[in-house]
Amino acid sequence: MEPKSAETSLMRMMAGIMRQHHYNSHLMLKDQDVHPGQPPVLFELSRTDGLRQSELAKRMRVKPATLTVMLNRMVKNGHVERRADPDDQRVSRVFLTDKGRAAVDEVRAALHTSEEYVFEGVTPEEKMLLRRLLLHMFDNVKKVEHIISRQTKEEPNHAANANKMD
User: Fold this and answer.
1) To 5 degrees, how large is the angle CA 27–CA 33–CA 38?
2) What would the pLDDT profile of 80-102 be if each residue is shown by its tens digit?
3) CB neighbours (10 Å) of residue 163?
4) How much is the pTM?
5) Are 61 and 160 contacting, i.e. CB atoms less than 8 angstroms apart?
6) 82, 75 Cβ separation under 8 angstroms
7) Pairwise CA distance, residues 42 & 64, whole Å
């Protein structure tokens, strides 16, 4: 068996933290009928309501079929609605409902509370250092995406803001 490097160990720790955070989010949001993958959709639509479903999939960095399943559940729960584009009836646009807009604030509050728990006992200086490290790591993984994209002739995902990690 190959010894684990420090990088592998750190990556596993980060993945474990995110898995636990995902589970905690599920517990915190289930009363609002919001499932763990849905907050980014709510936040994106709160910034730009009425996106084409295809554009929303690009911004979410998910396959259109994956987004369709997610949106079907969100429509069923009353958070979003689909409407035909008035200029092109073949195009579906996605809008927040009143319940969805209310959920945005509830989800933000729940995630803020979760973040407070996560960083309990962490100093502001440590948080600042962690932020710098994570931004540096994010830049590195974006560089790798561009290198791999050139090698595979696949377009990098420009829809995601390369300077943001959300």
Assistant:
1) 85
2) 999 999 999 889 999 999 999 99
3) 9
4) 0.76
5) yes
6) yes
7) 16
Could you tell me if residue 6 is inside a domain? no
For residues 56-90, b (16+ Cβ closer than 10 Å) or e, as one string? bbbbbebeeeebeebbebbeebebbeeeeeeeeee
Domain membership of residue 115 (yes or no) is yes
Q: Write down the mean pLDDT value for the chain.
A: 88
Torsion 100-105-108-109 (CA) sign = negative
DSSP 49: T
How many folded domains does the chain comprise?
2
Amino acid identity, position 102: A
Both 96 and 147 in one domain: the answer is no
Strand partners, 85: 88
- 30 and 108 assigned to the same domain: yes
